[in-house]
Specification:
This protein is an alpha/beta fold. It has twelve helices and nine strands. It has one domain. A seven-stranded mixed beta sheet has the order 1-9-8-2-5-3-4, with helices on both faces. It has a two-stranded antiparallel sheet with strand order 6-7.
Amino acid sequence: MPEGSKEAGSPARKRPAPQEEARRHSAAHRVEYALARTLESAVSALPERAADGVGRRIGRTIHRLGIRRKVVEENLRLAFPEQSAEWIHRTSIAAYEHLGREAAAILRLSKLDRQAIIDRTVPVGWDEMEEALSHGKGVMLVTGHYGNWEIAAATVASRGIPIAAIVRRQGNRLVDERLNGLRARLGVEVITQREAPSRVPRLLRKNAVIGIVGDQDARRAGVFVPFFGRPASTHRGPAVFALKLGAPVFACVARRLPGAAVRYEVSGHGVPVVRTGDLEADTTALTAALAARLEAEIRKAPEQYFWFHRRWKTSPPAEQPSSETGTVEAVSAPADPDPDYA
């Protein structure tokens, strides 16, 4: 969908006057935004492979500085207890390098158009998705922080299929608006979390694809399902939408392919939706199935997952934190009223 386009029937939004615009953003946010745009310009000016190399080196430097390194290594130990300390260390470095490369790829989105996305992606399961869309109920496309999730959404849009992504708003609204503008330029419509309950049903009725990144810790509001053999608080939103609205569900990832070229395999496969009449049980079952699909993909290339997030931060209600291992942390915060899908 072109940048600035609006859903049919929605009221036009008046852009704030310059003085009002300035008051909306703090000085710190304006400086942060200026730095981000400078970095974007610098990376975009480089040839793609050079930008990829710069991102990789930046990631490795951040690893050496130790930023969130303990979190990454602890997550890897929890997910792969059978692996050696050497493997954990090596995979940790590779995860930082991957993060740097994909950050550079996202900064270069302004350089890409529809054909550039097509040239960089290899779709898998496309016929399956087109068949699902032929029934006119839209598709729920659920992914995780693996590979490059922005490319996953852009791949759908580049093939001429309307897609809207449910996103979490960034704290810096200037950065948020810039990122959303880049998404819109590639044909990806944006839905904020608070807009989702009203907009998702309308878009599904128009046979659109709804993209959700749903693998972060959901605190007390989540449903606990196995993830790498451990109960993880997971957002129930994707499953609830699918069960209540009757849309087919696809598990999707955009995995970076090996080699010097920047290319991705974007796979999407249907996940069976079982309706027994017990919404809570069905929600848990579907959420668990989606988590299992994501885990299977992560095992193919563990370094491409976002291990920087404390995925097992919240303990199940009946589970007490272990003071000996330190692997489970109790959280006393109330349920999150604004779940984080992105």
